[in-house]
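Most newcomers find our protein records easier to grasp once they have seen one. There is nothing in a record beyond a sequence line and a structure line. Getting from the letters to the tokens is the skill we practise here. An example says more than a description, so a record of this kind follows:
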Amino acid sequence: MIEVTIPLKSHEEAILVLGPYDRHAKLLEQALAIEIYTKNGNLRLRGPDQNVFEAQRRVEHLLGKVRKGRDVDARDAEVILLGASTSGAQPSPERSNGGVANAGMHSAAPRSAKLVRAGPIAVRPFEGRTEHQRKYLDAIQKRSLTFGLGTAGTGKTFLAVASAVRALRNGDVKKLVVTRPVVEAGEHLGFLPGDVAAKLNPYMRPVYDALSELIDFEDVQRLEEQNVLEIAPLAYMRGRTLAHAFVILDEGQNTTVPQMKMFLTRLGEGSKMVVTGDPTQSDLPRGTRSGLLDAVARLQGFADIGVVEFDVRDIVRHPLVEQIVRAYEAPNRVGGAPEEAL
């Protein structure tokens, strides 16, 4: 058993060697039965002599290419460190089945659903159950901007978050940003105690609920600590350019037209956006036009923009939810026009 230290010249070198979310390090540890960690800006390898020497050879070969000015990306690094056969021997369940895993989808799946290990992130498998859900997943994968519109319980937010986690895990994006307009749902909550995070938590809770169905709580915490996962109110998006990120705007029906324009123009290089919302559940002041409906009317039909509309047949919550939605859409029992859904 020996330990070898490999000096690193920059933080970028450490990221390249360790891989996205330490993917390379984890796989190399498994392949060679060694330990890999960083300390004082250096890379440390510890384990059986021959295995450590082999890992050292691969790491120094990679660093040699980088220091000679060669253009090496994460995929090239994985091949150098793990070999082409290792990289291709463990395709994720999603990639082996047309982009989605062959398992239950959404919160109807039990919390005990088997986890799929992908690097350091454990992801619960998911798939679209209905035709609209499958079209939604396909649009998210192929388009830079996708709108998902429909009633409650149709999987709009969950599938958007699931697609984002998949893109993050696969290294397609470097960051996941989820935002919502902070609008009270017909109630005045008054003063909320605590710091900014505590005040915002009730508004962002649905996003955390979706994440908790897909990855472990510890992974959510770690990604937030590393600033890879950002969950913030819409107002915090102003002035930013979101490059190489998967960005989700949830509850888009509660944005005004200027807010929606501000959000959509944050789209940066290598990024993907998904906007979700239920036009029947707007909490905007009466007479205020929803930015969601305005954006869909303006942008539908543009290249690289997808619009998927869900209906009650796509509801995947408790079976009673579909009946409740249908009841609110029908004329009320005392006569007159249907009341606006709450």
Q: What stands out?
A: The radius of gyration is 23 Å. The chain has two domains: 2-89, 97-329. The chain is about 40% helix and 15% strand.
